[in-house]
Amino acid sequence: MEILGIDIGGSGIKGALVNAETGEMVTERHRIPTPSSRKPGDMAEVVKQIVDHFNYEGPVGCGFPTIVKNGVCASPGNLDSSWLGVNIDELFTQATGHEFTVLNDADAAGYASMNYGVGKGRKGLVIMITIGTGLGSGAFYNGILLPNFELGQLPYKKYDKIEQWAAASAKERENLSYEKWGKRFNKFLKYVELITAPDLIIVGGGTSKKWKEFSHLITIETEVVKAELMNHAGIIGPAVACLREQHHGHLT
Ligand code: BGC
């Protein structure tokens, strides 16, 4: 079954049709920049433009860059604070006329890796980390999602959240080399390892495309691998999650 997957990020909103049984993208990715207001109405308008672009009938799976509890935004993350308490499912359904399955973006990317990527068949605790505007995290125990892990929210030194120091947006803002930024990312991974003792860490998100530039700076004990679906995991994952919800009425 082909399902439209949408990956909503702080800088871009991306969509593609996905064969949700095989986990393959069957169209090119269509990307529209996230409106600079990052407000619900403006972003819903862009989501509608993405849906219209594909001329698609059917349910939509959507990865969203905040805590998502039963379709409701439970913390605005790097988006406008007016997102807090918004029922994202309902907002996007009203804007597009399509049924939506919305889940946290890193949880969604993890879904793709656990079902079709490097995480497939991996037991124990697998942590997905996505590097983008924020640092996203998704946790899977024996393949089952533990939703809304928020490891990027740990305070660090003068920063409210470590993601403000170690995400791709910090690299950009401070114009850091991969060498400098990679050391920060490694520090973040050290905390992830210390707190969660994972069996595997999968690194995805936009910056994972530059894996060769920083992977040599990762020195933790835990096995750390690149999500080979890379940036596409953010689109494939929500489509897979959407299919599961259609079949089982829940995500796990
Ligand atoms: C949010 C997370 C999100 C991550 C990546 C963080 O700021 O708190 O929910 O997964 O950014 O988008």
From TrEMBL:
The record's annotation in Pfam families points to:
ROK
Q: Which CDD domains match?
A: ASKHA_NBD_ROK_PPGK
Keywords (A to Z) from UniProt: Kinase, Transferase
Q: Name one GO molecular function term.
A: kinase activity
Q: Which InterPro entries match?
A: ATPase_NBD, ROK
> Would the keyword Transferase turn up in this protein's UniProt record?
yes
SUPFAM superfamilies in alphabetical order = Actin-like ATPase domain
Known NCBIfam families for this protein? PolPhglucPhase
- Protein name according to UniProt: Polyphosphate glucokinase
Look up and give the organism this protein is from: Flagellimonas flava
